[in-house]
Amino acid sequence: MRKCDVDLPEPNLLKERMRRLAALDLILCEEDWLCVHQYMPDWAEGVEVGKIDNGAGDDLFVVFAQGGVIVKGFDHESPYSPHAQDEYGVWPGMYEQVPEALLQYVQDEALSTEDVTFCYWRIQGDEHWYSGEYERPEGMDDGSEFLLGYLNDTADSYAEWAKSYFEVEVDLPAVRQLIEGGRTSAANIAKLNPERNIEDVLGQLIELGVTIE
Considering the domain boundaries, does residue 193 fall inside one? Predict the structure, then answer.
């Protein structure tokens, strides 16, 4: 295996970022299927899953388990895609070195195992993210930079993205409170989306683990 060559946050930071981004999408859009950022805190016992789905055939799953974290991404236009091979199949070696304790999670049908163009993992206690040792032809894009770019790490970057995607004006201070502090309030929810049913949103945010002031 080899050290991951993309910039991924520490596991706990990644978990919180995905949770907070999912909370913001949830506030801005009541249609789950239109939310790009999603988070499932009770996917299985002791397992949480963050997801990015841009609605254009590309997705990213991050499984947070007791033994570590595994990231599986799929860019449907990448030459690493099974659909781009002469014979349909996962790119040779993609999963070969993934620890079994983590591989079991991406083998779940809900995570579309074969739809993969990059995979990273980090065992509990490790200091680095890793990927498999497989052939990486020069110039071939696996889509990791593209999909990981949805993990907006500042309030400004999220607000700019959300304004374009949801086609709404976004209250930056309300976004900042969630992005930076992991908390929100009924007043800020109303600022972000005046048409949203506050009680419905509050219940969903509490399930996500967001602090309500």
Answer: no
- Whether the full predicted model's pTM is greater than 0.85, yes or no, is yes
Q: Domain span at residue 57?
A: 2-152
Ramachandran region, residue 191 (left: φ > 0; alpha: ψ -120 to 50; beta: rest)? alpha
| C-alpha neighbours within 13 Å on the C-beta side of residue 153 | 9
Q: Encoding tokens for residue 51? A: 């997801």
How would you write the pLDDT of the chain (213 residues) with one tens digit per residue? 898 888 899 999 999 999 999 999 999 998 989 999 999 999 999 999 999 999 999 999 999 999 999 999 999 999 999 999 889 999 999 999 999 999 999 999 999 999 999 999 999 989 999 999 999 999 999 999 999 999 988 999 999 999 999 999 999 999 999 999 999 999 999 999 999 999 999 999 999 999 998
Q: Give residue 177's identity as a one-letter amino acid code.
A: Q
For residue 31, being part of any structural domain is answered with: yes
